[in-house]
Write a structure and sequence with these properties.
Strand order of the largest sheet: 8-7-11-9-10
Helix content: 10-25%
Radius of gyration: 19 Å
Largest sheet: 5 strands, mixed
CATH class of the largest domain: Alpha Beta
């Protein structure tokens, strides 16, 4: 399955700052273990297909291992440009995400079907609840989100009733949602 996401970086682009993201937009996609990438270095023979390994790295012929997990495709392209600098002064690199396998969420508790959710696109809280079969009959309208060792308490009834639409947050890969 080709996702069609492409990042291009040149040495001059690698020196520019990042653009601020809007809160209403989905969070930037970050690479993770299991994602399949194609890396094209202009001037070299063809693209290299790379699987992000469990240690978060990819291997390239010219420069060896590069950390990919936790970075956006654009950041990875810039990191490759930097590692190529001793070999190619003004390298140009394209990173194409061919398959996404790393975006995973976990829904537990009072839902129709507690499960792991694997998606190729980021989900908001209510979308994830819908995928898990919705809140169970006796659910209390509360959610605990566990993200990177932090607990975030959310009242999804307030979201549904329009009292707190901002509570329908984007979920990140690895989030655990516990419905009470």
């Amino acid at each position: 399955m080709a996702v069609g996401f492409q990042a291009v970086a040149s040495a001059s682009e690698a020196r520019k700052g990042a653009v601020a993201e809007s809160r209403s937009e989905a969070p930037d996609f970050t690479l993770g273990a299991g994602d399949l990438l194609s890396v094209f270095i202009y001037g070299e023979d063809g693209a290299e297909d790379c699987l992000v390994r469990p240690d978060g790295r990819i291997s390239l012929r010219l420069i060896g291992d590069v950390q990919a997990a936790g970075h956006t495709p654009e950041e990875l392209a810039k990191a490759i440009v930097e590692k190529l600098r001793p070999i190619q002064v003004d390298a140009r690199v394209t990173v194409v995400v061919r398959e996404i396998h790393s975006y995973r969420l976990y829904i537990l508790g009072q839902v129709g079907q507690p499960s792991e959710i694997v998606s190729v696109q980021p989900l908001r809280l209510l979308q994830a609840l819908a995928v898990a079969g919705g809140p169970a009959e006796f659910a209390r309208g509360k959610v605990t989100l566990i993200r990177e060792q932090r607990r975030i308490e959310i009242d999804y009834e307030d979201i549904i009733e329009g009292k707190n639409p901002d509570g329908n947050i984007w979920l990140l890969s690895g989030d655990v949602v516990i419905v009470k």
